[in-house]
Amino acid sequence: MAETIVFQSLPSRPAPVNTEGLVPWVKNNLFANWQSSIVTIVVGAFLLYYVPQLINWAVITATTVANADACRAEGVGACWGVIREKYRLIIFGRYPFAEQWRPLVATLLMVGLLVMSCTRMFWKTWLIAAWVLVLAAFFALMYGGVGGLSVVQTDRWGGLPLTIMLATLSIVLCFPIAIAVALGRRSRLPAIKTFCTIYVELIRGVPLISVLFMASFMFPLFMPQGVTIDVLIRVLVGVTLFAAAYMAEVIRGGLQAMPKGQAEAAASLGLSYWQTQFKIILPQALAMVVPGIMNNFIGLFKDTSLVYIVSLYELTGALGLALNSDADWRPFKLEGYLFIVAIYFTFCFAMSRYSLWIEKQLNKSKLR
Amino acid sequence: MAVAPRKPPTKRDWSWRSQAFRGLLYQILAVLVIGGVAWFIAHNTAENMRVRGIKSGFDFLAQPAGFDIGESLTHFDSNDPYWKAFLIGISNTLRVAIIGIILTTILGTLIGVGRFSRNGLVRGLCQTYVELFRNVPVLLQLLMWYLLFTEFLPDIADAKQIGSFFLSKGGFTFPAPVWENGHLWALAGIVAGGVGAWLYRRWAQSKFEETGHLRSMFWVPVIIVIVGGVVGWIAGGAPAEFKLPVKGEFAIEGGGALTPEFMAVLIGLTLYTASFVAEVVRAGIQSVARGQSEAAQALGLSTGQEMQKVLLPQALRVIIPPMTNQFLNLTKNSSLAVAIGYPDVVSISNTALNQTGRAVECIALIMAVYLTTSLLTSLFMGWYNAKSAIQER
Question: How many Cβ contacts (< 8 angstroms) between chains A and B?
Answer without folding.
Answer: 149
